[in-house]
Amino acid sequence: MIDLPVIQPETAAPARPRKPDWLRVKLPVGQEYAAVRRLVDEHKLHTICESGNCPNMGECWGAGTATFMILGNICTRSCSFCAVATGRPTEYDLDEPRRVAEAIALMKVKHAVITSVNRDELKDRGASVWRETVVLTKQLSPGTTIETLIPDVKANWDALDVMISGGQEVISHNIETVGSLYRLVRPQARYDRSLEQIRRTKLAGHRTKSGIMLGLGEKPDELYQAMDDLVANGLDILTLGQYLQPTKRHLDVAEFITPDQFAHYREEGLRRGLKYVESGPLVRSSYHAERHVNVPV
């Protein structure tokens, strides 16, 4: 009798979780959206709405608002969740603050959000352009409130002081995920360094804000610890949203968090001492940002 080799059945790769119905959004359409589209193109501006594949672009642009991205559209970081292009930036336009300020004035927005790519190759991390953009926007649109979503300055605290000195009402820096996932999600960043940046911003007397993506594999207890760490470092406002994989080259979605769970996390954040929590599957850093201006400092 001949012993035949036992052939093991092939193990199928685990199926990716299917995107649930609550994450479906409308395509951007309408006259207001077209008007913003035209202004962005005419002034040769970058928006994180496009570069980050934001699911709320239709809603926000349809309302005549947008989040502007300064200092080019190529980032020196290679975060595994982000759709913004990575490489060696070539753009450093000292006239950009004027163009952004003029566009915001033309759009007549009541609240503007400004963000940027990381520019680690610049000695001041682009801080002078940051400050000039806020200052000129305030000059041309004195009634407009501003949130700046600033990058990690890699402990260049002099650069941070310049970035946050333009007169903006809200200063945001996203920690993005829980501490245990930093090497996977933000390999060129450090959890404790981002907390320190928030702490220094608060000590300077500013309204502070941060954001976390959910569905990357974090455990609830890890999220609660992150909330506690943020409160301990002076955070006022937290946004919680669902991570969505921008391309197949980026991290897979580990889990789709339900709307009920997002509602629970909002209550938990408030219970732990945060002053305001924006929490939902489609929430992004800039979503309903105009509401955050009134949060007490």
Automatic annotation (TrEMBL):
Matching InterPro entries: Aldolase_TIM, Elp3/MiaA/NifB-like_rSAM, LIAS_N, Lipoyl_synth, rSAM, rSAM_sf
Compartments (UniProt record): Cytoplasm
NCBIfam families: lipA (TIGR00510), PRK05481.1 (NF004019), PRK12928.1 (NF009544)
EC number: 2.8.1.8
Gene name tied to this protein: lipA
Family: Belongs to the radical SAM superfamily. Lipoyl synthase family.
Regions annotated as coiled coil: none
This protein's name: Lipoyl synthase
Main localization category: cytoplasm
Gene3D superfamilies with a match to the protein in the record: Aldolase class I
Pathway: Protein modification; protein lipoylation via endogenous pathway; protein N(6)-(lipoyl)lysine from octanoyl-[acyl-carrier-protein]: step 2/2
Positions contributing to [4Fe-4S] cluster 1 binding: C49, C54, C60, S286
Domain Radical SAM core positions: 61-275
This protein's record includes keyword 4Fe-4S: yes
Keywords noted in UniProt: 4Fe-4S, Cytoplasm, Iron, Iron-sulfur, Metal-binding, S-adenosyl-L-methionine, Transferase
Co-factor requirement: [4Fe-4S] cluster
HAMAP family (alphabetical): Lipoyl_synth (MF_00206)
Superkingdom classification of source: Bacteria
SUPFAM superfamilies in alphabetical order: Radical SAM enzymes (SSF102114)
Catalytic class of the enzyme: transferase
GO molecular function, one term: lipoate synthase activity
Signal peptide: none
Reaction(s) this enzyme catalyzes, per UniProt: [[Fe-S] cluster scaffold protein carrying a second [4Fe-4S](2+) cluster] + N(6)-octanoyl-L-lysyl-[protein] + 2 oxidized [2Fe-2S]-[ferredoxin] + 2 S-adenosyl-L-methionine + 4 H(+) = [[Fe-S] cluster scaffold protein] + N(6)-[(R)-dihydrolipoyl]-L-lysyl-[protein] + 4 Fe(3+) + 2 hydrogen sulfide + 2 5'-deoxyadenosine + 2 L-methionine + 2 reduced [2Fe-2S]-[ferredoxin]
